[in-house]
Fold this protein.
Amino acid sequence: MAAPERTRRRSRRGRARAGEGGSDYTPSIALRSIDGHLTRTGSQVMAWYRLAAQAWSFRSDGQREVLIRQIAAQLGELQGRWLHLRVTTRPYPVHMWAESFDQNALGRMPDVPGALGWDGFLEGEQRHLMGLSMADKEVFLGIEVSGRGLLDRWVERAAPVLDRIAPSAVRAELAALESEVNHLDVLAAGSGLDAVPASAEDMAWLMHRSVALGLPAPRGLSSVPRGVSTWEAEDLATFTEGVDLHQEPYAPTVQVVGRMRSQAVSRNVAVLSVGLMDGLRIPEIDDPWMQHSDRLPFPVEWSARMYIRRPEDVTGELQRQMGKVRSQIRHYTHDHDLDPPMSLARQADRVLEVEDELTTGLTQLNTRIYGWWRIAVSGRDEAEATTRAQQVVDMYRPKVQIEHPEAQYRYAREFIPGEPLASTAYRRRGSVTWAAAGVPAATASVGDRRGIMLGETCTATRRPVAWDPWLAQEVRRASGLTAIIGGLGSGKSFLTGLTVYKTLRGGARWTVLDPSGPLAELARLPELAPFSRHINLLRADPGILNPYRVVAEPRPDHFTDEEAPERAWKRERSLAAATRRRLVLDVLSGLLPYEISRQPHTRIVLLRAVREVGGAPDRHPGLVIDTLRRHASEGEEHAGVVADFLDERRELPQAALLFPDETRADPWQADRDYRLTVLTMQGLSLPRPGSPREEWTDNEALGVELLNLASWLTQRTIYDADRNLRKGVALDETHFLSQVPTGKVLIDRLARDSRKFNVRALFASQLAGDLLRVSGFASLVNAVFVGRTDDEEAQSEALRLLRVPTDVGYEEMLGTLSPRPRHDDRPDDTPRQFVFADGHGGVEKIRIDLEAPHLEHVRDALDTNPDATRAVPRAAASGPEMNAPDEPTPLPVTPRPAPLPPAVPDLDGDDVDLDPRSGTGVTDTRIGLGDADPVLGGPGVRAGSVQVVAMPSEDGADVLADTELYDDEELDLLDELDEDLLDEPAGPDDRAGDGDRPTVDGSADADGDGR
């Protein structure tokens, strides 16, 4: 590179111009210029590349061996060249993530006065991330382009003159250099290194981190001006000025002093060198030996100088070494008549083995290499630096010996590109395969850089994990199907709630079916309450789960991009009608007793009646029963039997959800644009997972059908909204959906339509096998979260869903997620761990994080752990007086109201019905089925109003109790009603032998009443 004009004239005349006092500037480092990704010294040109991160976790040994061989093959192609490997760290770009997240938050909801606003939420996320002190690993590789001789350097200095006299002499070197650089660019980009030429910003960062070794990494390093990619000799002062290295004689560290924001900062740096190394079995047993340092809680810098040897050089050295070994063996055997040591025999065998490797097989993989590997750690003082150095030494023991050499100043300068080798001590020799087994670019890579913050990786590398649930649909054209797998207490609800909350803040719309109900607390958060609604389906209007209404009617505007829009719309309407018929057929079959439903003739008469009613959205199951009655009057006796059983089930209170009140409007024609809709079904009885159909009770069979219909209801909101809006559907208790045909159709439909309608569908289940039973689920799933799983078969199925190799040891790891000490009696509120597959190749173990101070109210809302102290005030637990152990503390006597008369559904809307057991009239004090839902609008009890309920006291007098209703709650006395008592009086032994039945929240239902 030609020197500036003023420098040439000054050197030619021997004096400086007026105003140019002083001598020429000479950098304090060996580097003389940077041109793009090329660095030049007086004797060498190197091309620098940035290596792509390589996934190592959750890959099979075969995949890992392929990666190592690919890297080795690329190194083997660089025979006769020097390489400089630099591994450094960059603080996680929190400001860049926040900027991307803010720009990606399209259509976010307005702030609510007095609640956490968007700016406060985003600032809190940034502050929390900055406090975690996590960094990204960055790996750079410098490859020698050419060794520059005396003639080349003379041509460079004389280029301005030669360019006029003999331009071909100047262009010859430049042309040869360009051709060689292009060859290296192609070679480095191959599979293995996956490297790209370092950009100007990359080179600036590498120089800053190398010259100012050990100083805190600047979080806001000024970007290189656009179009600037060249640093002349004078420009290199940008990196060297203001940084000094000092070392006391025989000191174990070197002191680096620099400036940050106009303040002096100093660090002590200890430089270590890799010494003797035992035989490592990578990847069968050991991890890549350069990756071990990623486990340390402080940043570690690497610098390796390597020379790829030519085969002819290695052959000559092997012959000399073999001659030495044979001479020593003869000295033992012939001169002294002794058996030689076994070490000599091993050396001879190793020499012959290396010679055989070089003469047979793939030459690139057997190419030999020698080099020096240095490790640098820093501390605020010498004691901290040496302590960290000892931690490095201890981590690599006993298989790798780490040395702490003298001359720390010269070793520290080795990290700067272009600097000469400090010492040839601790030189390591081996094959390129051995060097490639270090896999310097191996790191944890999962998620993206624009989505919500889920947590952090908890493998060898600790990095933040961001995830945009709509990146797959909008950018990668993939499905939005997501599986959340884990046993009881694995954190599925917490993860679902975290995803829903943060994406809601970013502008998404969610419909959540949470049968057990803890996620309904999200609808009460101040910042979400004005845009949310909570509907308990068991207390909602009759017909809200009408099978004909839960399947949405296709809209013509959703097919405008089709080749034939009208034809596509009509085809989809036909499919929707067929889905309704299949759904009502399955639901009515599920309501029948098992002995009746399994009869072939039952299916025939039901199918005939359903087909006659049709699949229009204005139908309802009552029409099917009427059709069965008509068929019975026409001589079809079995149709009458089926109709009788269905009429009997129709009398159940929960069955009213299937049969609409035709005098009312559609409850889903809401006039508000809700961002969050939470559907709950507290008190729903569900059978034990895996129990056979013949063991289900009537309430359990009805519960499964209601859950199936509620799941279909959630997807209705997808097709009622604009297809381009970001939407989400979260379904819990998915394992029951996989047991019914229409549930499988629903899962398949959500998977296939998620990309077209921009939907992220979350399916939560305890077992991966429940989802794998759905045909095509494994191929359509995009992202997967797997929590703690203990059963061996379930572990294998979960790995299949993650697309992770099985039978290689990962099964046991799933049982160690979210570990907890056995003898710790404190509440288990530690963040849960999941194995996260992001859908585009990244699979890592992560830790869900919701510990930021600004999200404390969200954490409390999502806490589903029971706590008796919340129900009993602490002040009541201990009185002001202390009594003897045998004297119980007298408790204040509080009059206890007598039980309310049993409530019954208000089917006629007059608020007065007959008690089926007493025959007396009772006042319906709940929001009856004849009233409008205050959440969905219409006449009825005003949301937030006070209901006055008449309650008899112990002396028979009526007292008034004020019960305040939340905006999304209803007062329902049916929760205290045993449904079986509506049919017949309960005897003292009616419940004997029923056993415990699980409810939707996973607890045992001791009395079998579904609560």
Observations:
- Residues 1-14, 874-1011 have pLDDT under 50 and may be disordered.
